[in-house]
Amino acid sequence: MAPGQGHDGKMLPDLLDEIRVPRSGPGRPRTTPDKVLGDKAYPWRATRTLLRARGIIAVILEPRDQRANRIRRGRRGGRPVNYDRDTYKGRNVVERSFVRLKQWRALATRYDKLAIVYRTAAVLAAVITWLHL
Predict the structure, then answer these.
(1) Based on the domain organization, do 46 and 76 belong to the same domain?
(2) Is residue 75 classed as helix, strand or coil in its secondary structure?
């Protein structure tokens, strides 16, 4: 599979390693989020296992086809996925933010070859979008 055709979920471990949230008082920055919200494109067992190993709650809905397969398999299908419905409903705020950022053509089509240039463009677009709101 070519790099451009790979799924974004493969970058989750690298993304989680880069999280740094400064504390309001003294102390090291937080490096582990409480929860990770994802849509139906990220329901894999590997994703859930990674998050569970790091002590992060996965708020990811199980797709209908996977749910049907699990039920069809009976006891061998495993337990149903547990997620917080109220938290999942708040996921649309993030989705709407991505829709706004995708209005920037260079971000939507990923023209930039270097990751640092792409990240800078994403931060600049986010700041300008935030200022307009």
Answers:
(1) yes
(2) helix
Question: What span, in angstroms and rounded, lies between the C-alpha atoms of 35 and 15?
Answer: 14
Give dist(CA 34, CA 93) in Å, integer: 17
Under the banding of pLDDT at 50, 70 and 90, the label for residue 6 is low
Q: Count CA atoms closer than 13 A to 11's CA, side-chain side.
A: 10
The answer to whether 100 touches 131, Cβ cutoff 8 Å, is: no
Which tokens sit at 39? 């849509």
User: What is the mean predicted confidence (pLDDT) over 27-36?
Assistant: 89
Q: The whole model's pTM is what?
A: 0.65
**Count of domains observed in the chain:** 2
Instruction: Evaluate whether residue 132 is within a structural domain.
Output: yes
